[in-house]
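Collaborator request, handled under Task 6.
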Amino acid sequence: MVGKFLNVKDLINAGLFKPNEEEPSNSSFEISVFLPGFKKEVKVVACNLVSLDLTEQMSYVAETVNSIISFGAKDYVWLKEVIWKHYESCISNISYAMVDSEGGDNEIDANRKYFNISSPSEAFSLASLEVIWFDVSFLGVDYFNLHFSCPWETEHGVMIGISEGKLDYYE
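Structure tokens returned to the collaborator:
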């Protein structure tokens, strides 16, 4: 587990290279980092890494992992709002088989009552960050993806793209 800034050598020592024998350019590198805002250790995956020996790629991996580690308190404020928007969108557009909509005003109200989530903080606390990943083939781009599991979207969860420390997209 890592919770401090890393250089390339420290990164390689702390992580695990996963070679893809059939398609070497699709190999990956995994490292666990502790993120205080999430109060947990999270797996970070660098996809499409060819080799640990490529200086430019490994420097990019180290820069991106350090960017993830520096994800700060100000970021959690807007992140809560994004997860809330995802929740609101899902309960407004999904027909959940387990939700009894009888006796309610409408399906959205029945969904809201079933999940009983009433604020961005509650939605954030119920979304569990599972993995952070980024694609090494985009060298020099400060971009990574956060993938959460959540009770209102059990099939796909919440995916949030972060570019230059700011929201790029969510789904």
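The cover message to the collaborator said: "Helices lie at 8-14, 55-69, 73-93, 107-115, 120-126. The longest strand covers residues 28-35. Please let us know whether this matches your experimental observations."
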